[in-house]
Design brief:
five-stranded parallel sheet, 8 helices, about 300 residues, nine-stranded mixed sheet
Length: about 300
Amino acid sequence: MAGMKNIWVFADKKDAILELCAGGRTLGDKVTALVIAPRTDAEQVIAGGADQVYWLGDKQDGKLIEDYFAAIFDLIQTQKPDVVLLGTTKRCKLMAGRLAARLGTSALMDVMEFSATDNGLQAKRMVYGGAAVRTESSAADLTIATVGPGVFEKLPEDSGRQGTIEDVAAAAGSAITCVEKRPKVGESVNLAAAKRVVAVGRGIANKEDLKMIEELAGLLGAEIGCSRPLAEGVDWLPRERYIGVSGVMFKPDLYIGIGISGQIQHMVGCNQAKTIVAINKDKAAPIFQQADYGIVGDLYKAIPALIEVLKK
């Protein structure tokens, strides 16, 4: 695409920066990363696909990501990248909005797919709570967008890859000081990195029945995911395992949806899986329209049968 030369990426988590670097390589000629982390992370970002890193130093105790806004704004204003991709954490979205406002452009939020056209960068994102997909084109010289985990896949680390790291003096400072951090109570799970996922929905009748889902996932070496009602309705599984438009979006090799109807709000999180398997007693369930393989039947018969076969 004409004019799309320099893609910048920024996130407050290393894995997110690496995914954005991989995505940047598909959109432009050069990838530049903004890193606020130990210098070893900057070196890993080069190995993960960046051509250049502006290293703003390790994050200082008590400081917030938004404290580095002025330094990032100055770099963008002077170096004039074509595209800035940011992660989707609250702090990255705040950064995207502030940058867009100061630079006189708009921010595309929660982009799920990019395509480079002769007329500019085109982005798709969910609207109306996931009921529809809207395609938008940026008409500005600078495109700012936030991109969630799993939209792009990290490149294999190449320790021999060459790039430049430039130190940037960032005078972090704001009216807000972080005085305390406490670990969030919940599970530590990275669904976006899972190659196999067994997802369960409201078709399961009792919380105790999740044991057979856990057994199946264990035999397959898979992570467990769920639809929204199980995470934010009956609270049988933590929100970290919720797949969908406001949950995790990923591209696993294998996704097995069990007792999940397949509403678009859920499927947008997993429809990029290489293989989709659906198990549902309702043959008219929407999930079968996107499944590569389907079992129309009672999950309480299908799952024990699969477990028995896998144990052999």
